[in-house]
Write a structure and sequence with these properties.
Length: 243
């Protein structure tokens, strides 16, 4: 390809454009990784000592630390390799990118093949988090944010909140048979005052329906038994009359 300012100058310009474009790309992700790492460390140090959730899946601070550390390290290798023209670092950076892409593709294929198992796994982990909703502030904030932004409640439905000891219908407090305020629908266009008790009693209607259904079935069975007894009495009367 012809270059009006000379072959050497054109090659040098192309080299510098590629060099600093790669460096800026790696630097931006290096900064992003550093921010995630610092946020994760801060969140982990601010968490209460008496937390009950020890699973990494439900520990956002640990996830931030791991993601930030990985992104920070890989981006640093790429930035140093681009800035110092170190082919070893550049090959290593390229290898990490290829491995990351392959892992994402492999994970996507596995998630598609085992989508039902993945769905059940995610829901089970989410229900476990709901069970300890008030024990982990990180998970609580993420759950509230997700429910409000996605306009959802629980994993499958609002009935998932029965597993929480405070929202179970057997609980003694005002939150019994209820759901968190983040499950409530907020008016659009207006910044409402958050009512933390707006979801209380939401599960009661489900149990009321079960109770009514149970009582109705029992009553229906009694009526059937009464009809059968009346038929038996009528048969006995007819037999005695014939005799």
């Amino acid at each position: 390809m012809a270059c009006g300012i000379g072959a050497n100058t054109c090659a040098a310009l192309t080299y510098r454009c590629l060099k600093y474009s790669l460096f800026v790309y790696c630097f931006l992700f290096w900064v992003l990784g550093l921010v995630l790492l610092l946020l994760g460390i801060y969140a982990e140090t601010e968490r209460p000592e008496t937390r009950e959730l020890q699973q990494v899946f439900l520990a956002p601070a640990i996830i931030l630390i791991l993601c930030g550390l990985t992104l920070f390290s890989i981006s640093l290798i790429g930035a140093v390799g681009a800035l110092r023209d170190n082919t070893t670092f550049l090959h290593t950076f390229f290898g990490f990118l290829v491995v990351g892409l392959l892992l994402q593709l492999f994970g996507g294929v596995l998630a598609l093949i085992f989508r039902h198992q993945a769905y059940n796994f995610f829901n089970n982990r989410l229900r476990n988090g709901i069970r300890h909703y008030y024990d982990d502030l990180d998970f609580k904030n993420i759950m509230d944010f997700t429910q409000m932004k996605l306009s959802c409640c629980g994993a499958d439905s609002y009935m998932d909140w029965k597993v929480n000891e405070y929202h179970s219908c057997e609980a003694p407090g005002p939150a019994a048979c209820g759901v968190p305020y983040s499950c409530c629908v907020q008016p659009k266009g207006v910044k409402p005052v958050i009512n933390s008790q707006c979801g209380f009693g939401a599960l009661l209607e489900e149990f009321l329906g079960l109770l009514l259904c149970c009582l109705y079935i029992q009553r229906l069975q009694d009526l059937i038994n009464d009809l059968e007894n009346e038929e038996k009495d009528q048969r006995v009367t007819l037999v005695e009359t014939n005799c």
